[in-house]
Design a protein that fits this description.
Layout: H1 6-13, E1 20-22, E2 25-31, H2 35-52, E3 57-61, E4 64-69, H3 79-89
Antiparallel strand pairs: 1-2, 2-4, 3-4
Helix pairs in contact: 2-3
Length: 92
């Protein structure tokens, strides 16, 4: 998988609302109702990630879930990151 150019990354960020670029990663923080809801949401993210074979770094702080995507094997952002971000963005 090839690394995306800065222009491609900027274009892709316009398609995945809420995600922002931080260096060689894209990041989103999602607020849920409470801790239980945050865990249920994370379970849905885990299902999508396993199906895609591409896994985000995850942090939970009570009702907030922060997801960080990057293709570590390539050293930056690829289409796989934005494909998974797009699927995650569709979750309720």
């Amino acid at each position: 998988m090839k690394l995306l150019t800065d222009e491609e990354i900027t274009a892709q960020l316009g398609v995945v609302p809420g995600w922002e670029r931080r260096g060689d990663s894209i990041v989103i923080t999602v607020a849920r109702t409470d801790f239980r809801d945050a865990l249920l949401y994370l379970g849905a993210v885990a299902y999508l990630a396993e199906a895609a074979g591409h896994h985000p770094d995850v942090a939970i702080s009570w009702n907030k879930v922060t997801l960080t995507l990057s293709t570590h094997s390539e050293g930056g952002l690829t289409g796989a990151d934005f494909a998974l971000a797009g699927q995650i963005s569709q979750l309720p």
